[in-house]
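Could you join me in thinking about how sequence relates to backbone shape in a protein? We need material for that, and I hope you will provide a protein of your own picking. Once you have written the record down, we can walk along the chain together:

…
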Amino acid sequence: TMPGFGGVTGAGSLVLCTVLSFAHHSSALVGLRRPGARPTLQISPSVSPLRNTQVGELADVSDSWELDCYSRPVVADDGKKLWELLICDSSSNFRHVETIPANKVNSREVRNRVEEVIDKAPVRPREIRFFRKAMFNMLNIALGGVGVGIAAKPSRNTYALYQWIEERERDVYPGMKGFKPSLKQPAFLDIQTPEKMPDALRADQFAFVSLPISEILDGGVNGENVGVGRLCPVPDGLPEDGMLQGVLFLTKRAKELAMWVAGSELSHLKADLKRRELVMEVGMSTSYLTAKLNDMQRIEAQAFEAGKANLSGLHFVCVQEDPEDDDVAGFWLLREVNM
């Protein structure tokens, strides 16, 4: 059982800054397995037509899938940019990649190819997430008809896919004939004014907190003790003595709030230091203003963002009714990725 947020000492304790409230201030001490490391799945570099499926631990293949259909920084043999369809499950135990001719990138073609993958996959998906705003129309149409009971979800909650794309950009594309770094699409900065936070997402208090990353790496926090939360894949090479930054939300409606967050396609939290705002990012492109930051909160938010940067964007959100509770309503390990 995961230790609660109250009265915890030792390696499992969270370091808690001042609990920050919209109405008043108080203070408290807060206490908080990564699943087995995913197999290394290698795809042979090639610019010729490619279709490759890799399956790791069959028992661990998830029915939650993630998909990307996009051009890569490689010029194919026909002189056009290489387009790939990438499909993986959220545990990275199932990965499928295939090239698509540039002149066949359309919703019907993608739907047919996805349906073929589903027919041959060891586990049928119940949902397929996709994150690229530029591809929304095509993918929403393509995935909207792939099968009964399969939900298409526009969402940035595609951490396994991010990690796989990063691996391919680092290890695969540079080794391909026709690789051109200048073709890599720059990260799209969608600067927008955050929307008003829905009442269902409001908490009574929040606090910037931190947790030793070893609690994640060593399995102290795992899929069985995060309530209705979820753990994203952890990037390789993180410093074992690092501190994982997070935000704790306290509310008497903890269970209701946690359930709402679980269904919101929460992607990440970010602190806009210039605007002095704490922003919750959900779905494909929605931003909610969580709080305005005063001078002290801005200092803590700066440490929050610096800690994220030190751990490849990794951070967490936790929902709890009271800091003395033994259990959490929900714990989400998140990662901000610019892609």
